[in-house]
Amino acid sequence: MIGARLLQARRAAGLSLRELAARAEISAMALSKYERDLMSPAPASLEKLARVLSVDADFFHCPLKIALSEPSFRKRGTLSRREGERITFALRQSLERMLDLEHIFGVARSAFFSLPPAVTREVRSLEDVELRADSLRQHWNLGAAPLESVASIMEEHGIKVFVSDAPEGVDGFSCRARGGWVNAREAPVIVISSRLPGDRQRFSMLHELGHLVLDTAVDIDREKACHRFAGAFLVPREAALRELGVRRSRLSFYELKILKQKYGISMQALVYRAADLAVISRTMAQGLFTAMSRRGWKKKEPCEIGREEPRRYKLLLFQAVVEGLITRQQALEYLGEPVEETRHELEAEWVFEELSELLQDDFPDLDRAGFEQ
User: Fold this and answer.
1) Which residues are within 8 A (CB) of 369 and not within 5 positions of it... i.e. 6 or more apart?
2) How many CB atoms lie within 10 A of CB 106?
3) pLDDT(128) > 90
4) Could you say which DSSP state residue 184 is in?
5) Dist CA 133 CA 331 (whole Å)
6) Mean pLDDT of the residues in the chain
7) Beta-sheet pairing, 170-179 with 186-193
8) What is the DSSP letter of 249?
């Protein structure tokens, strides 16, 4: 049991055996035996490993709870095997914490993902992709209006969303998880990079949702289908034609900037959307892309969109602390704070600063002394 957990924590930290051995001052040979359960570490060694790997010592004694399907990284370059393992193992730890926290509140506070009953996953054309995106929006009662927060919408409908410090060139990935207290159900999981601007985070999340809900025919390019799904979900056909018109000879950058701010979608994705719906020709679209590239907008567009932030996990965490369902110490462990000698100071600061913000509307005169009492 300790071996599997030690391997998970080491890979989540992105450390090799030799690197962990050097930091924990334990031989690499001993670590290898620990991970293969050929030898058990002494309590003092386990404490050292916990400190270096930023986990609680009890973590090593918990059974593995989560099974993940093989993630498919959406990347614009190479991704080392070691870095891929780090991201995946870190996700596993975050998922376990989330499912443990959800278990505290039970089914009544949990959302489970489902497709509309009449909708199949199979798509045989890009027009089918449009219909799937529209059907899911209607199933979630979103209409054709702009989406304030893609992450929040996904979390409300049972999709686990995480932000990762993925390396440059990795936009995100999706997978499915099974385990924890809802073992009979399979939870879709979407991870996006913290490095992306907000508009690309939103598009990437919906692109990954496309991977989870679409089964493309063999003659349909899967990546193009998921791109089309993301664009159609962010700006439905009805909204796009209302904003742009049915047929245009050209588009101005000024209107693209306005629509980017309104719908939270990049200017480049808007041009693709207009071309997909035949509002403009492919030739006109290519001309716009060339002009954007000359202005340096291919890498960084004007009008930044705020980054997405999954909120469900922290919301449940704060509620659990306020209701006395978990202790302050447990709350820090759920947040994955480093295990250091200053834990008690961190605990006091975190609880006061974070929870006082949540309670200030009800208790405007709350101060540190009153809170600690």
Assistant:
1) none
2) 9
3) yes
4) T
5) 37
6) 83
7) antiparallel
8) S
Tokens read off for 178 = 């099974």
Amino acid at 313: Y
User: 183: helix, coil or strand?
Assistant: coil
Match 């991704």 to its residue by tokens: 79
The structure tokens listed for 276 are 């997909």
74: β partners: 172
Give one DSSP letter per residue of 112-128, joined into a string.
-----TT--SEESSHHH
Alpha helices in the chain (DSSP H): 2-12, 17-24, 28-35, 43-53, 81-105, 126-139, 150-156, 198-213, 222-234, 237-244, 253-263, 267-276, 282-294, 312-322, 328-335, 343-359, 368-372
More confident residue, 316 or 328: 316
Q: Is residue 364 over pLDDT 90?
A: no
Residues 6+ apart with CB under 8 A from 223: none
CA pair distance 247, 241, nearest whole angstrom: 9
How does DSSP classify residue 301? -
Residue 371 has pLDDT above 70, yes or no: no
Q: Can you tell me the distance from the alpha carbon of 324 to that of 327, in angstroms, rounded to the nearest whole number?
A: 7
* 247 Cβ neighbours under 8 A, 6+ residues apart: 278, 279
Exposed, middle or buried by CB within 10 Å (0-12, 13-18, 19+), for 8?
buried
